[in-house]
What we know:
This protein is an alpha/beta fold. The protein is 41% helix and 17% strand. The chain has 16 helices and 13 strands. It has helices at 2-7, 48-67, 107-124, 129-134, 141-146, 158-172, 179-185, 190-206, 227-241, 258-264, 277-290, 319-322, 334-340, 345-355, 369-375, 387-397; strands at residues 14-17, 31-34, 70-72, 80-83, 86-89, 95-97, 246-252, 267-274, 295-299, 327-330, 358-364, 398-406, 411-418. The strands form four sheets. Strands 9-8-7-10-11-13-12 form a seven-stranded mixed beta sheet, sandwiched between helices. It has a two-stranded antiparallel sheet with strand order 1-2. Helix 11 (277-290) links the parallel strand 8 and strand 9 (295-299). 39% of the residues are buried. The mean pLDDT is 91.
Amino acid sequence: MGPLFVERGKLVSTELIGDPSIHQDGQWAAVLRHGAIPFVSYPYEWPFGMLRDAALLQLELVAAALDENMTLKDATAFNVQWDGSQPVFIDIPSFEPLDPGTPWVGYEQFCQMFLYPLMLQAYRGISFHQLLRGRLDGIEPSDCWGMLSRRDLLRPGVLKHVFLQSKVQARFRDREGDIKGELRDAGFGAEMIKANIRGLTKVVGKLDWTPAESGWVNYGRCTHYDDQARQAKGTFVGQALAARHWPMVWDLGCNTGRYSRLAAEHADLVVAMDADHQCVDRLYESQRGEGSRRILPLVANVADPSPALGWRGLERKTLEQRGRPDLVICLALIHHLVIGANIHVDELVGWLADVGADLVIEFVEKSDPMVQRLLQNKDDIYDDYDRANFERVLAASFEVERSETIAGGTRKLFFARNRGRK
């Protein structure tokens, strides 16, 4: 089982370290060395398609393990990481021998971490990102049922995996006794687990999310760029990217990934981030179809990024703690952060400087139609938002190598080297 999944990139490559010195005092039975994951991400940063494909991988591995008289003792979504568009299972110690007559102990966790978030997004349009970010062990059956309705009982999987599980949870929460032993005595076996896995695979595989189209999905085709300006922008960004090979690029506000794809031609990995779930999901589906390993699409809001979470804030890390980029692309975004999210220009540029990367950034004048839309129902209190001030602030931390004005003079592109970069 293992080698086949490793060959397909679905299971992290692993080797046993045989050095006796690491087994001091008998504290460790073995030490494993795993292949590196380019950039760690979390389920509350994945678009719908990524969470669904991670769920299907989890189920595929359980089914394969059962054929070898093994099982997976848990089913947390944090056990899956990504190599571009390929989900990779990383928790090798989760595999253990199957205890005859016992159920799949990871079933409840699978529902809470995978099935319920996907159902809520697909059936009710309820975003799972904040739910998973707010509770690292997932969504309880009773909470999921509370967000569904009785009409949802007719939808695939809701009656069995949500409604009945919420009743079972309430019934057995405070019960004492050997529940596993009772199931064993009742004849619970591997075939029953396999049947459950097949049922779950069918339900998850059919889940789909078809939201009303967001305005940002077609943002790249908006009329504030004519063909000449769009071509000039692409040429400018392409020349900046071609200046060197970039091990890691962040594309902030990536939309559906036009410039992420361009960056992937000059980088080992592009972490493409956007706050618009639909845009990121569309980017993932396109990369999945192409089998790309160079773009990692994430649902991330620069103004409200994933914080450090878990015990002592060490279990889940911030973006910067997971791997700093060599280049940041920040196109058509600064006005959204300054005017839309009330972040001062010096704070924004200061953060970009602290990230430690070189920068491709686009400044959008207040006279630009998109900025006028942002200001339409707001008082213009953004005195620091003008090109002269932006260029002063930028020059304090970056050395501008090239710049170019486009779009009828309302937008200016900058390629800048970070002065603090080593």
